[in-house]
Amino acid sequence: MTTADPIAEIDPSAAHDLASAGALLLDVREPEEWRIGHIADAVHIPLGDLRPESLPRDRVVIAVCRSGNRSGKATAALTAAGVDVRNMAGGMKAWADAGLPITTDDGTPGAVG
Fold it and tell me: Residue 65 catalytic?
């Protein structure tokens, strides 16, 4: 992949379907954003802490952030490292707009900060 190549993007509905089929949801937002609300069963690794070697190579990874910008950067880096990854277009804002559930660590309904 060169810097001119587009990153693979999917919408929240497709991300939900892929996650239901076993894909890993990777939330790259900051801890305070995560605490306000996240997708259940997502793995939280802030973008600055992301290490491609820590991610599975045997399943699709879906990168998520608030709007799709940071997750786009994560997707580009992970693709370059050989990870099968997609960027969730529109991020958590699009997930919420699609009516998909957001939770907190204690299981109560969350929000997008």
Answer: yes
Q: With a threshold of 0.85, does the pTM exceed it?
A: yes
pLDDT score of 2 more than 80: no
The pair of structure tokens assigned to 84 is 């099968």
Instruction: Give DSSP secondary structure letters for 4-72.
Output: TSPPPEE-HHHHHHHHHTTPEEEE-S-HHHHHH-B-TT-EE--GGG--GGGS-SSS-EEEE-SSSHHHH
Residue type, 35: R
Selected catalytic residue, list 42, 61, 65, 85 = 65
**Do residues 39 and 27 touch, judged by C-beta distance below 8 A?**
yes
